[in-house]
Design a protein that fits this description.
Number of strands: 8
Order of helices and strands: EHEHEHEHHEHEHEHE
Strand order of the largest sheet: 1-2-3-4-5-6-7-8
Number of helices: 8
CATH superfamily: Aldolase class I
CATH class: Alpha Beta
CATH architecture: Alpha-Beta Barrel
Shape: globular
Number of domains: 1
């Protein structure tokens, strides 16, 4: 398989510069990845840089902690789409999930999904902060909210994707939602293990290592 067709090239560091975004877009076009994943402030610039390219733009909202109010997530998402984003990644409200306020978690995701309409929505769970039961519950909420993807991690917590977490997610969603694994997948060999486990998309940073022949 051509793994680049399923790769999100990601640049989300708080110190990301315009030069970093330019380099990211150049690399994305060279590697012909599926998409780039960036903060919303750089969507317009990326749209300009990726003009006449097949590379899609994904913007994060409520990032990286997910604990902003829903209206703020909606405003950020709709503004990003207006500026050229073609996918939205929102961070689940971990505090509400851990408080077992499942109704509010569901409403948060549902309201964002309704607001962005047909634009694909990925919900970031931050699996390193969740136990197995919390992952199971979060998956069920994402399915009920009609999210398009479950994404494992932000890259800003104590850990990232794990094969164990992906297997739990896959068993729970039973194909109802796609899976995106992110953070800690640094080379092609590791990426293939995740694809073999059943993920549909993988997020990597620009230093992702590949063999010469893909």
């Amino acid at each position: 398989m051509n793994i680049f067709e399923h790769i999100e090239l990601t640049q989300l560091n708080p110190s990301t510069t315009e030069r970093d975004i330019i380099d990211l877009c150049l690399e994305a076009k060279e590697r012909q990845v599926y998409s780039i994943c960036i903060n919303s402030s750089y969507v317009a610039l990326s749209k300009e840089l990726l003009n006449n390219s097949k590379v899609k733009i994904c913007s994060v909202v409520g990032f990286p902690f997910g604990n902003v109010d829903t209206k703020s997530k909606i405003h950020e998402a709709k503004t990003a789409i207006k500026n050229g984003a073609e996918e939205i990644d929102m961070v689940i409200n971990l505090g509400l999930l851990k408080s077992k306020n499942y109704v509010s978690v569901l409403k948060d995701i549902t309201d964002v999904k309704l607001a962005i309409e047909e634009t694909p929505l990925k919900v970031i769970l931050e699996v390193s902060e969740l136990n197995k039961n919390e992952i199971l519950k979060a998956c069920q909420i994402c399915m009920d909210a009609k999210a398009d993807f479950i994404k494992t991690s932000t890259g800003f917590s104590k850990g990232g994707a794990t094969l164990t977490a992906v297997k739990i997610i896959k068993k729970t969603i039973k194909g109802a939602i796609k899976i995106c694994a992110f953070h800690g997948i640094d080379d092609e060999e590791t990426a293939i293990k995740y694809f073999d486990t059943g993920v549909h998309r993988i997020g990597v940073t620009p230093d992702f290592k590949t063999s010469e022949v893909v």
